[in-house]
Q: What sequence folds into this?
């Protein structure tokens, strides 16, 4: 008991007397745990905000009936009338029909209101007392009374500079030919409104005219009479609609609680994926931090050899010594986790501020027990595991041996065993990467993932042995310009290969991920550029804003451009085949082959009005051939038999299945018809591109949503989306690189303390301060370049076969980002110098006599 108390005091006083060492060690824990805390805090805060919104969805609704598929037109009118006629028998108190759909609304300047990805929808205005739950509150003005009047949610009106009395335009997401001129007569408050949400309301009859063909109703809400529970009414309505199997295929019959739960589940799934992404990067940071903490405690143990030896000499057992080191680790872990929690909350607050500006809801940051527990727990576990091996080494130091002048780390000599294991794993990794890279699909990708894990472990084990020849060769290059200083830096860098390799691994892992992601991104952009260059004949491509959906009337307007020779719009149809949803593309208004290159294998690709063509993989998978009839079922239950008239090579533009105009008309109800892919425009021979662009801008201006791009602009637009995603990933990876820099600083700073006597001797024999600083700069640069080069090689070894496996999903070929790799290597050298600035200045300030005496 007494010795345990003594050891605890030793641990706390050791930390207190080495404040700089404590700060550096704690900070490496803080950065990793902060991302764990940020992930938990951010996702739980957004989830709670969405839950608060969804708690207001379907309020007061006992039962809601909708189509089973979002693109289906809704519930047939005859079924709704059947329910209305059976209200008393079923126990329905009130039945309300809802009509609505996507719209685009112009702001005060005549441009589309940008929603930031939030919905922009129209619905019917239901007067107070006539609806169910009355979630809409009229806060200014009056209800719409004619087809050219609307109400709009106050948040959207304020953002768009609109008010009661403003005139604006509305574009419907259906086949209406022209934009609608409307006057805002009222402002509403909607509990479901988020930062970017736009919700307008027409009067009941106008909404029904615009969003229904008279045969279907989008949403039907009901309340139950007293004495009938929601679940009882749901079961009765389900039975009244018809055969159970048919009802389940065509409709959703849910209680209000189920509607709210389903919407919460959808956002929860998205947030779970987002949380996993953040946690993955936090894991990377923690993994990198583990090596730094391990390095730190290894050096601490080496520097405290005498202290630990004295403790052993006065009666401390091996367990007491190891517990002393682990106690320090525990205190560091608790402190790092606590500070990491605070930093994580700050990171989460910044993320919430950004997402709120983009339309996501937020009710203020919420730091729950789960965030607190995860940050502190992860900080303690990571630190304790990192310090475990150094603690064991400390306990095994014999007192007499530890009393020597040397502070060489125990076990730093032999590398043979771990290098041999690393070499074996490296061979297995290469085999897995090669085999996986020769295939396509999920199976080969999994083999590549196994190879990647083996390669990383192999590098961890073999890196110390690799560092000696590499750093030696690099030192040889710098020997001539830097002379003795260069040789001294090389000697210091290879003196302890374990330490050098562990320090460099932080950069290795970070830059490996940078190269893998860079290779994926470059290959995706290369595939897109190739597809556009080889596959697009059109002069201009018209796409839509706010989600990309465009009314069919927009394509009709484009055809009015005087110098537009061919205009082909592409619409999407969804049908069921053997009970599964099947997506198909319908080229409308012209031949797809006039604006795009689609290579036929057999038959035709310009499908007739009643035909269907498929790509080779689809034909092989389904066993289809020319002349086969395919029985499709629309989302409304109508059977449509379509003959296969052509088979073509895989095409990004055509997609896997093409159908004719008549097939599209039979499968898609009029209120669901819209263009969701680009409109391709080819000009007349000899027409000037600027002239055609000007004409297209004139005819599409009233529609608010048209973006007119030539082929280069179209490629750049798609590539910029990939670039934005990659920038986000690189920003997250920056965490590991920051930790890597701190790791080099930490290692060098402790190394300077460890070599204080040696530096003092060098200063005593005439070494200038500038030469001391230069030697530290070079030592750091050697380690950083070694880690970066190892990361680049490892990244290419993993990235290239990974891209090859993705060919199954359309990735055309490997594009290696050489400029990125070259930049990372140059950056690594800069990182080495920057990381060494403070340790080098500290070393240069060493006073010769004091250092010799203290040593």
A:
């Amino acid at each position: 008991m007494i010795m345990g108390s003594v050891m605890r005091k030793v641990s706390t006083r050791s930390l207190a007397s080495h404040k700089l060492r404590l700060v550096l060690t704690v900070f490496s824990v803080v950065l990793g745990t902060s991302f764990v805390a940020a992930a938990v805090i951010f996702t739980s805060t957004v989830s709670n905000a969405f839950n608060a919104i969804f708690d207001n969805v379907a309020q007061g609704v006992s039962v809601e009936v909708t189509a089973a598929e979002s693109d289906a037109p809704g519930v047939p009118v005859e079924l709704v009338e059947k329910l209305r006629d059976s209200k008393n028998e079923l126990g329905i108190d009130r039945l309300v029909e809802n009509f609505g759909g996507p719209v685009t609304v112009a702001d005060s300047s005549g441009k589309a209101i940008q929603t930031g990805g939030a919905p922009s929808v129209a619905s019917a205005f239901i007067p107070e007392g006539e609806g169910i739950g009355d979630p809409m509150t009229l806060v200014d003005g009056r209800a719409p009374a004619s087809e050219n009047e609307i109400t709009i949610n106050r948040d959207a009106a304020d953002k768009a500079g609109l008010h009661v009395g403003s005139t604006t335009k509305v574009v419907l997401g259906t086949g209406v030919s022209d934009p609608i001129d409307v006057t805002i007569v009222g402002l509403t408050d909607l509990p479901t409104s988020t930062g970017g949400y736009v919700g307008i309301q027409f009067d009941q009859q106008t909404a029904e005219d615009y969003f229904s063909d008279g045969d279907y109703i989008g949403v039907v809400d009901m309340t139950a009479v007293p004495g009938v529970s929601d679940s009882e009414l749901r079961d009765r309505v389900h039975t009244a609609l018809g055969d159970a199997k048919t009802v389940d295929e065509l409709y959703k019959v849910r209680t209000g609680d189920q509607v709210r739960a389903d919407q919460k589940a959808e956002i929860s799934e998205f947030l779970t994926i987002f949380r996993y992404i953040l946690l993955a990067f936090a894991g990377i940071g923690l993994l990198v931090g583990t090596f730094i903490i391990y390095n730190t405690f290894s050096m601490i143990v080496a520097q405290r050899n005498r202290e630990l030896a004295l403790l052993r000499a006065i009666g401390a057992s091996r367990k007491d010594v190891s517990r002393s080191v682990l106690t320090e680790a525990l205190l560091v872990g608790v402190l790092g986790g606590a500070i990491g929690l605070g930093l994580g909350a700050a990171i989460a607050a910044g993320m919430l501020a950004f997402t709120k500006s983009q339309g996501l809801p937020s009710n203020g940051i919420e730091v729950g027990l789960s965030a607190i527990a995860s940050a502190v727990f992860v900080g303690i576990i990571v630190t304790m595991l990192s310090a475990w091996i150094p603690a064991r080494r400390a306990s095994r130091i014999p007192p007499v041996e530890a009393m020597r002048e040397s502070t060489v780390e125990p076990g730093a000599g032999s590398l043979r065993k771990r290098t041999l294991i690393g070499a074996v794993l490296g061979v297995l990794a290469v085999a897995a990467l090669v085999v996986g890279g020769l295939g396509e699909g999920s199976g080969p990708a999994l083999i590549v993932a196994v190879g990647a894990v083996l390669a990383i472990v192999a590098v961890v084990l073999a890196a110390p042995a690799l560092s000696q020849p590499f750093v030696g060769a690099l030192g040889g290059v710098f020997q001539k310009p830097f002379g003795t200083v260069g040789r001294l830096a090389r000697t210091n860098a290879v003196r302890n290969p374990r330490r050098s390799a562990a320090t460099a691994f932080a950069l290795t892992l970070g830059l490996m991920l940078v190269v893998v992601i860079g290779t994926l991104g470059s290959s995706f952009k290369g595939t897109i550029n190739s597809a556009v260059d080889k596959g697009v004949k059109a002069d201009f491509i018209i796409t839509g804003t706010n989600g990309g959906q465009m009314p069919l009337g927009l394509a009709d307007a484009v055809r009015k451009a005087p110098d537009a020779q061919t205009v082909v719009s592409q619409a999407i149809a969804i049908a069921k085949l053997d009970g599964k949803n099947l997506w198909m593309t319908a080229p409308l208004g012209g031949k797809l082959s006039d604006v795009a290159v689609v290579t036929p294998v057999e038959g035709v690709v310009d499908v007739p009005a009643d035909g269907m063509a498929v790509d080779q993989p689809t034909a092989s998978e389904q066993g289809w051939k020319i002349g086969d009839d395919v029985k499709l079922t629309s989302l409304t239950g109508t059977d449509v038999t379509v003959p296969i008239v052509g088979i073509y090579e895989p095409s990004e533009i055509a997609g896997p299945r093409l159908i004719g105009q008549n097939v599209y008309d039979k499968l898609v109800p009029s209120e669901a018809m819209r263009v969701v892919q680009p409109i391709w425009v080819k000009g007349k021979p000899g027409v000037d591109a600027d002239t055609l662009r000007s004409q297209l801008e004139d005819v599409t201006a009233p529609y608010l949503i048209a973006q007119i791009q030539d082929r280069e602009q179209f490629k750049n637009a798609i590539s910029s989306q990939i670039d934005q995603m990659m920038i986000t990933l690189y920003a997250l990876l920056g965490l590991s690189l920051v930790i890597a820099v701190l790791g080099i600083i930490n290692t060098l700073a402790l190394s300077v303390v460890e070599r204080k006597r040696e530096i003092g001797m060098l200063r005593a024999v005439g070494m200038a301060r500038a030469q001391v600083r230069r030697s530290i700069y070079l030592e750091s640069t050697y380690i950083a370049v070694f880690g970066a080069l190892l990361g680049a090689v490892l990244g290419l070894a993993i990235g290239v076969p990974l891209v090859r496996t993705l060919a199954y999903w359309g990735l055309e070929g490997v594009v290696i980002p050489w400029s990125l790799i070259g930049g990372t290597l140059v950056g690594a050298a800069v990182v080495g110098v920057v990381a060494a600035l403070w340790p080098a200045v500290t070393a240069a300030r060493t006073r010769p006599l004091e250092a010799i005496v203290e040593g």
Summary: The CA atoms of residues 497 and 553 lie 70 Å apart. The first strand starts at residue 63 and ends at 67. The chain has 26 helices and 23 strands. Residues 471-539+710-855 form one domain.
